[in-house]
Amino acid sequence: MASTSARPAMRTVRSAALVIGGTPQVETVVQHRMRPTGRHLPDADTAEWSTAVLGGVPAQTGRCCAGRGPDGLSEGGGGAVADAAGRAPRTAQPRLDAAGVRTTDSGAVEVDQYLRTSRPDIFAVGDVNGGPQFTYIALDDYRIVADQMAGEGKRSTADRVAVPYTLFMTPPLARAGTVETDAILGAALLSVDEQELVNTVAPAIRGGVTAGSLRDAIWTHPSSTEAFNEVLANVVR
Question: Are 83 and 8 in contact (CB under 8 A)?
Answer without folding.
Answer: yes
